[in-house]
Structure formats: structure tokens, C-alpha cells
Design a protein that fits this description.
Layout: H1 2-28, H2 48-79, H3 85-118
Helix pairs in contact: 2-3
């Protein structure tokens, strides 16, 4: 049982150390005016692209919050597993799915900028 708990603790510490070490690269990679946060008041959609960018910003914010909640839920499942193989396996899958969701969300925000750079649109900033 101690071996399983130490494996789970090692997995959690490994994932968190990778995430913490990647943070400087994520923040330094940003070249635009900054992230577009969801609007708080007086939302006016003058163009279709502006409306889509606002919608994407809202969805991205919601997904990031949900990902954090799912990671905390997986940690709770690890702590309350009591050495049960099935609960540990379930928590492993929850962490894996949350990590994949976060990676996909981050890549989806950067994809318009990357496509603009590859196509030669130098002033394109994306959403």
C-alpha cells in the first residue's frame, strides 16, 4: 500500500514540477497586447470576428476554471482512495484528462497566431 501511495505522490509531484517549470515559457511566449479577458460591461459586437473572439475568450476562461476544479477533485480522490486500486486508477485518469484538456485549450488559443505567422500576416494578433 505504501508503494502505491508513493507512486501516486511521485506522479502528482512530477506533473506539478513540469507545470511549474513550463510557466516561464508560457508567459514569455506571449508577444501580443496581452490576453483578451471576457468583457465585463457594455458588450458591443461590431464585427463577426470580434464576437467570435469574445466568445472564445469566455469559453477559454470557463474551461481553465473547470480544469482546475477537476485537478482538485482528482487530488481529493487520491487522498481518499485508501489504497483502493480502482479509485487510484480513476484519479489517474482524471488527472490525465485534465492535463490533456488544458494542453488543448492552450494550443487552441495560440493556433490563430501561429497560422498567421506561417501565412506571413505579420500584424496578425489573433483573438
Amino acid at each position: 500500500m505504501k508503494n502505491k501511495i508513493s507512486k501516486a505522490a511521485g506522479l502528482i509531484s512530477g506533473i506539478s514540477s513540469i507545470a511549474v517549470s513550463a510557466l516561464p515559457f508560457i508567459t514569455l511566449a506571449q508577444t501580443g497586447p496581452g490576453p483578451q479577458l471576457p468583457p465585463t460591461t457594455n458588450v458591443q459586437f461590431t464585427t463577426i470576428s470580434g464576437a467570435l473572439c469574445t466568445l472564445v475568450a469566455w469559453i477559454f476562461t470557463i474551461l481553465v476554471v473547470l480544469t482546475v476544479i477537476f485537478i482538485l477533485w482528482a487530488a481529493y480522490n487520491y487522498l481518499t482512495s485508501g489504497g483502493d486500486e480502482e479509485k487510484i486508477k480513476k484519479a489517474n485518469h482524471q488527472l490525465l484528462y485534465a492535463a490533456i484538456a488544458m494542453i488543448v485549450a492552450i494550443l487552441s488559443r495560440g493556433l490563430p497566431f501561429l497560422v498567421g505567422q506561417f501565412l506571413g500576416a505579420g500584424s496578425f494578433q489573433g483573438c
